[in-house]
Amino acid sequence: MKIAVKVLPREEVLDSQGRAVEKTLEHNNMAVDHCRIGKYIVLDFSEDDVTKAKEKATEIANSLLHNPLIEQFELEVL
Amino acid sequence: MKIAVKVLPREEVLDSQGRAVEKTLEHNNMAVDHCRIGKYIVLDFSEDDVTKAKEKATEIANSLLHNPLIEQFELEVL
Questions:
Q1: Of B71, B60, B75, B42, which Cα lies nearest the Cα of A24?
Q2: Pick from B36, B43, B64: which is nearest to A42 by CB?
Q3: CATH code, domain with A19
Q4: B40, B58, B63: best mutation site toward chain A, by most A Cβ within 10 Å?
Q5: What's the complex ipTM?
Q6: Number of domains chain A contains
Q7: Structural domain range at position B10
Q8: pLDDT tens column, A1-34
């Protein structure tokens, strides 16, 4: 089964990529109120049990995929 | 309203970041079958109409957020 890990910069952290995209959108008449940019990681497990797969995904996200000082993550079962 | 753009490398394109994470996970006894790494972009619109906001998000994703040669994207209404 597939589980996606959505990693985003924390609200209190300056998201320079997001700011850059906001400015470019403004200059191209496609302005948005706010933009945040993070990572989207799809993990494919042989595991079929949702709970176990989510546990594994959380372990992987905590140990390798996100930096808790500046990022937060959410899981999405696909 | 918020709309997320999930950008992933196309299946036929070599995803070097994904391969690197797969190998690291294997070395740390957390192997997964497959891993793909892309971008996760949250756009915040003043627009309240879902259809219009999705149209704008599609336009933005097509013109600025993804490279159709090597990437594909999906929208997610948050």
A1: B60
A2: B36
A3: 3.30.1280.10
A4: B40
A5: 0.90
A6: 1
A7: 2-77
A8: 999 999 999 989 999 999 999 999 999 999 999 9
